[in-house]
Amino acid sequence: MSLSAVVQAIASFGPISRASASKITGLSKQTVSEIVGNLEVEGWVRTVGQTEGHIGRRAVVYEIVPDAASVASVDLGGTKIRVAICNLTGAVVNELEEPTDKSGGEAVIRHVTDLVQRAAGGAKLNSKLPRVAVIGVPGVPDPGTGQIRMAPNIPGLDCIDAPDLWRRQLGIEVFVENDVNLAALGEHWLTKRGEKDDLVYVSIGTGIGAGIVVGGQLHRGASGAAGEIGYLPFGADPFEPESLKTGALERVAATHAITEMYRKKSGRNRSVPEIFEAANQEDADAQETLDQTSRQIARVTAALTAVMDPSCIVIGGSIGAREELFNRVKKYLSMCFPRPVLIEKSTLGNHAALAGGASVALSRLHLSLFAEGLKGVEISVPPPSVETFKKGVA
After folding, report:
1. What is the pLDDT of residues 367-394, one digit of tens each?
2. From 101, 310, 321, 355, which residue has the greatest number of CB atoms within 10 Å?
3. Which phi-psi region, left, alpha or beta, contains residue 327 (left: φ > 0; alpha: ψ -120 to 50)?
4. What's this model's pTM, rounded to 2 decimal places?
5. Quick one: pLDDT at residue 393?
6. Common-topology check for domains 68-183+351-391 and 192-346
């Protein structure tokens, strides 16, 4: 417990003197000096100067050694895979992005492994392999085993033991979490929304889902499927077989639904970015497509607000973060819900899940290194600059 308390003090308030760490932790100066000395010998902390502005002898101050270890955060999407390698303070030191292997199944497993290894190899760190990897997936990881369920956007991913395959291929600790849950944690951790301990993150892109933070903690539900709002009975007929597979809401409010809706209205095939551009150019069919999509998202946002009463709802994802859609959702939400709702656009954009994965991986790593195997101990890692994740490189 003493070790974790000292590490928490240095991580949160460093550069910090041993005397200050003693005051913060309530431990004796001798105990703190012994712990800091051991951490310095083992390469986890380093001296970075002396205190200034104090009367009397100046004290040496310490900080965490950023490059002493690293973690990997992975955002596995239906169209892209993003990997960020972060140092011990959470700064991104390397990032890679590639299109997702369309073969699905074990081909995607190998692709993620290869991308993590290449990203780690390109990072300028003392240790070439990360200690922990957190992988965000577009599905529902089983709370006990981590095996992935309900992942329609990556074929075959729910037919294999993905966590075990990644652990064996990478040779490190691997934790699997829903990608939208990680995005919610990322927004909560890396922005001022950490001051709002009850928030809902709604992601609209290839699929649609929500991450729910209650009391500062991720809410997964009894089976880990909290936030699977794509299956809410809005939009398409929920009793049709396709709705059981894809979800009634997702059938009318995600990428494929938007492009198909526009095609039926206009007779033209266009990508979602092209539809946004057409709407900006006064294309009536494109504008009507975005209006209809926004109304569906406003309805589900109203439902989430009525049930959860969060302090903030964050809209993100490759589609949700677009200004053209976000502004429409705000307008329609005010028309279908009787009281004001604080609704904000994602600050982190497509790096939200990477940020959340980094926060989980760093917490796991700090616990394994410094919590002495004690149950109930927590080490919260202070977030780095938001720009670290928006730019992708420290």
Report:
1. 888 876 556 566 677 888 777 666 554 4
2. 355
3. alpha
4. 0.89
5. 43
6. yes
